[in-house]
Model the fold of this input.
Amino acid sequence: MCPIKDWSELDNKEFDVVKIYEKRDLAKDQLRSAIWLFLNRIDFASAITLAGAAGNIFHALVEQHGKQPFLEYARLLCDKLIGHVPSKNKYLKHFGDLTGINPLKHMSLKCHDTIKIDLEKSAEVAITKTVLDFIKLYGDEETRKNEAVNTFMQWLWMTHDGKRMIEEYKALPAELKRKWE
Done:
């Protein structure tokens, strides 16, 4: 091995920390981490913020693919359930506020120093919404390959009596059922 005379002689590729990442891949990592933190009951607040960040990316990607994100489906469903459709921005903000996504990522002079929230339930809802957009974006085949998503779906099935949920879903009128194109 030759002695190094000058740093410019080194191939610094192994030291490069700035790389190019696909946001979809980072969102998959965020979702996996959120699910792990949630299912292992380690940190519900971090699970919420990770699921929220991943959810924003998946939501945009679902729209870019000409499909309907879960929150858009839920927003439009309001017409049948309560008689009017809230504005998109208002509905998205409401979901972010309700699940703690917004208050956990923002702090300004106008923000309260405290937050009243059921962290566990909010993490479950935030992750579920993100998983639904993941499924919409990647389809059944890719979803089956994702261990974290499958584990979370199994947890939901066991925790919320999946058989009962299927029966309730089957009993819904057709106009209330989501199309899974």
